[in-house]
# Entry
Amino acid sequence: MIDTTVDPCHDFYKFVCGNFIKNSVIPDHKTTIKTFSIVNDRAKLQLKSLLEKPSHQDDSKPLKLLKTVYQSCMNTTQMETESLIFIRRVFKEMGGWPVIDPNWNERKFDWKQVLFRLRRSGWYLNFFVAMQIDIDAKNSSRRILTITYPHISNYRSLSKGVNHTDTQAYYDHMVRVLSLFGAPKLSASVEMNEVLEFEISLSKIVASDKASASEYNPMTIKELQESVHSIPWLQLINNYLAPEQMLKSRDVVNVTLLKFLKNLEDLLLNTNKRILANYMFWYIVKKCIHHLPQKFRERNFDYLRVVKGTARAARWDQCIKEIDKLNVAASYVYVKNFVNTGNKNLVKEMATYIQEAFVDIAQNKSWLDSETKGRVILKAGKIGQRIGFPDELLNDSVVEEFYKGGSEIIHAFDGRRQPVRRKGQIESWTPEAVKSFKEKSECFVGQYGNMTIPESADNGGFKIAYRGYMKRVKQNGEELLSPGLSYSPRQMFWISVATNGCAKYRNKALWEVRQYQRPRSGVFPGYGTVHEPRGFQQRFQLLDRIGDESRRQSKTDVLDFGSHQWGVPSTARKALGKSVNTNVHALEYFRVMVPFMNLEDFSRDFDCRTGSVMNPEDKCGSVVMSNSTVINVPLLKFLKNVALLLRSTKKRTLANYMLQGMLCKNLSFRLLKEFREQTLEFPRLEESGRAWK
# Structure
């Protein structure tokens, strides 16, 4: 993948990924190809080959389950004859879909009762809110129910209103699907327009309230009921958990978006029942359209082609995605058949070195006060290692018991976490440590824009991983040069890290015009993909430096990313704000370039001259002054420039500037006069400038 024609000190991403981007072909049904996706595709092909083998009496129960699900998904003939009958029966049992059912009765419709009946029938659908089981951040030995916003895949485009290109394509898709159910075009157009308006309103409150999400906001169900009156929360929650668990009003749940729930309540109370019913049944169709007859699947493929620029995926690929929802069984089968379990020991060794390196770095961080530093080091020492897969996954009886009776998996997954205690629960840092952290974060915000948690982790994670590698080298000696490569083991460390970020996008996915809302100001205000203008400016400066240096070297504009696609095209800088809306991270280019530019270890290993693109004079780091005050490096440069300016400016000018500033702050004339009499005189208030000293 390495492009040896590129200077690694000039553009390390292009050096590592250039040939990957030039030579890789994006599959027709995808918007991108990445090194990780290639590995994932290989795993899917392995699983496919296993599931397509005839069933055998010696197959484990999880394998038999997966084969049954896979074969059912692949049976499109049965799908043609039975799926439409099934979905229409669901509509009827739930009271009917108004737009295609002339007998629908508004008086009998209650969205809550429809949701309850669907859940009892086995449908887990997040029409208005989502619920999930998480580890309790205050007590890691317990679980807690988290209530949050629903998953709306296209909420970003919907939140921009009916005039957005993707929203118009979505509306056309809605009407065309309704026509396949036999709805008259006029009524489908009118009623789906009302549904669209509802979805736009819902998406707007998701988009506006998402940034204010609280990672941990526990309250009793009774307190939640008092805050959001019209939704029967206890009944809703127990309907979700039944029959395994039943809660009471005094039980605590985690409400990450209370503001969203209040806005949702207003929206539901002010929306016509017919619109709510049409929305709910449309939501059902969206979720199961891949399992409807071919004409529905074709219609969905046409829609995805418009909004994503992709062709249809092979049927087997879609069915493997369905299999992946049975993640315990799929993981068990894959590990049993394709994983070399001996590799876990090598990874465990690496993780141990990295863990030790983190402790070393934390001990030397002057911006952490001793109390917070002690907590951090204690926590680091208590972190357990879970490598690849849990050992229980190799225990047949444990996995088979998990699927006894075909029970549903409730997947408890990690969210954005705050600093935590050694056992995993949240514990605040001291105010001094938080203040220092925010000050140091501002430098990275300037590079990434509104930085997300993964991007901030990149900068520290690469450094810690390298120090872990160096601990291993110190203990075991330098590694040998890789055969056929002229790069040292230390250089290969950086190359291997950057290789994970190699990616190639379709032009439509990368540059499609998006006018998303600007994020709120501050450090870590949200977790979306849109970044502040100051982040754009930093990226432009980076690209300018690469372009200027390249033009000096070759007199060509290497930033013609229309064909190369490893950053921002020189002809489309205004499009930088329209980053890929399905990816919460900064584009891979910046997630490699920016951290490496900030690391002295990288610059030393590749012998990059000071002032080169990959070794700028100003890095995001810290300078510890004699009084232990931490100042960001870019701020220090600013202060030096201010000092030069002050030395070269006349005192009279400085006096005018300072006292005019006070007037601008609405300082009263009387206070100004007293200040003048006690300290120095304001030159412009004197009859003669000569009297001023």
